[in-house]
Design a protein that fits this description.
It is a single chain. The protein has helices spanning about 5-15, 30-40, 75-80, 90-95, 95-115, 170-180, 195-200, 210-215, 230-240, 260-285, 295-305, 340-360, and strands spanning about 5, 30, 125-130, 135, 150-155, 160, 185-190, 220-225, 245-250, 255-260. Helix 1 (about 5-15) packs parallel to helix 2 and helix 7 packs across helix 10 (about 260-285). It has 2 domains: about 5-95, no CATH class; about 105-310, Class II aldolase/adducin N-terminal domain (L-fuculose-1-phosphate Aldolase, 3-Layer(aba) Sandwich). Strand 5 (about 150-155) and strand 6 form a beta hairpin. The protein is α+β, with helices and mostly antiparallel strands. Strands 6-5-4-3-7-10-9-8 form an 8-stranded mixed β-sheet, sandwiched between helices. Strands 1-2 form a two-stranded parallel ribbon.
């Protein structure tokens, strides 16, 4: 199997005086591990996709196949999920592959906390690691201070299979999303303030304003409110993942899915920056510019080649930027009071009396 390296592995090699050039060129690296190697100008090339490797080459822990590639089709993703027998679960949970993913989840948790996308013990992260197993964050732990030892392993019904701390109650939402969207490998839920403001207002952000938003997120629907941690709320969100990878949760926050932990997080970051930009644009202009429909069509073509979902595929150009539900320019100013008719009559009578008195 391809060697999996986390930032911790690279740091240990550096401390021991090891030769970084000995790292295999086909090693699988976490983003933080790659950053460390780039600092030393020794980052190996990105490994080829599984489809480009020799048939039968590479196996995961306990003889299981590696996780599918980013751009794998849903059918391929399903076919490549490892099958973990009950007696293998503990060793699988402690395997090098999951160790790297645990580091990555904790790294994304810190980024969420540092950017104020979560507060207290809010937010949760998960990664589907096998056909019937999901690695997830625990309950009542700040995402900015998680450690790999805090993480949990659950089955597709939410039953905890490994981990010392109790799994998050909102993993039920993640599981329903995985069931509804086979392409999803990771899910991130948080409460970024600008995007959550749209969720509280019950408004989807307008479309056709920034290219990156169109390609990587697109239309962002608002799922109806449901009590967090309930199966009812989970299913309302999961009903939207077939055509959307980023969803606003009414009066709650945002949830996004991707084909890696960082990919799912990127959707969250893109949406939050977009919502903030839209609000600034509304402050400086009552009619912000939009991208012309023919150019939006070009962006959607790019999106299709990336295998990303969007309900606008196949629509006519005149339908691509329908922002009819967007109430841009609304302010919080208090409207001027409407004068009472009786008061108006009384004021006029008093004014007439004063004028007559002055004229005597």
């Amino acid at each position: 199997m391809n060697k999996f390296l986390s930032a911790r592995d690279v740091q240990a090699l550096l401390r021991s005086g090891g030769d970084l050039s000995s790292i295999p060129t086909d090693a699988i690296l976490t983003p933080s591990a790659r950053d460390l190697l780039l600092e030393n100008q020794l980052a190996p090339a990105v490994p080829p996709r599984p489809a480009q490797r020799e048939a039968g080459r590479g196996e995961g822990p306990s003889g299981m196949p590696p996780a599918p590639a980013y751009f794998a089709a849903p059918a391929q993703v399903q076919a490549e999920w490892p099958q973990v027998a009950p007696h293998q679960i503990e060793s699988f949970f402690a395997s090098p592959d999951l160790s790297g993913l645990k580091d990555e989840i904790c790294g994304i948790g810190r980024r969420l906390w540092q950017r104020a996308y979560v507060d207290g013990n809010g937010g949760n992260i998960s990664v589907r690691v096998a056909a019937e197993l999901v690695l997830c964050t625990p309950t009542l732990v700040s995402k900015g201070f998680m450690t790999p030892a805090d993480l949990c392993l659950v089955d597709m019904e939410g039953v905890q299979k490994a981990g010392v701390k109790k799994r998050t109650s909102e993993v039920l939402m993640h599981l329903e999303m995985y069931k509804a969207q086979p392409a999803a490998r990771s899910i991130v839920h948080a409460h970024p303030p600008y995007a959550t403001g749209f969720a509280v207002a019950g408004l989807s952000p307008p479309t056709c304003m920034i290219p990156e938003m169109e390609v990587f997120c697109g239309e962002v629907p608002v799922a109806p409110y449901g009590t967090p941690g309930t199966i009812e709320m989970s299913r309302m969100v999961a009903a939207l993942v077939g055509q959307h990878n980023t969803i606003l949760m009414a009066n709650h926050g945002v949830v996004s899915w991707g084909r890696s932990v960082e990919d799912a997080y990127f959707k969250m970051e893109i949406l939050e920056a977009y919502c903030r930009t839209v609000l600034v644009a509304q402050q400086v202009s009552s009619a912000p510019n939009v991208i012309p429909a023919p150019q939006v069509r070009e962006l959607l073509t790019i999106k299709q080649t990336l295998g990303l979902p969007d309900p606008r595929f196949g629509l006519k150009e005149c339908e691509l930027c329908d922002n009819s539900d967007w109430r841009g320019g609304v302010t919080g100013a208090t409207p001027a009071p409407t004068p009472d008719a009786d008061v108006e009559v009384l004021v006029r009578q008093i004014t007439d009396e004063i004028v007559r008195a002055l004229g005597r």
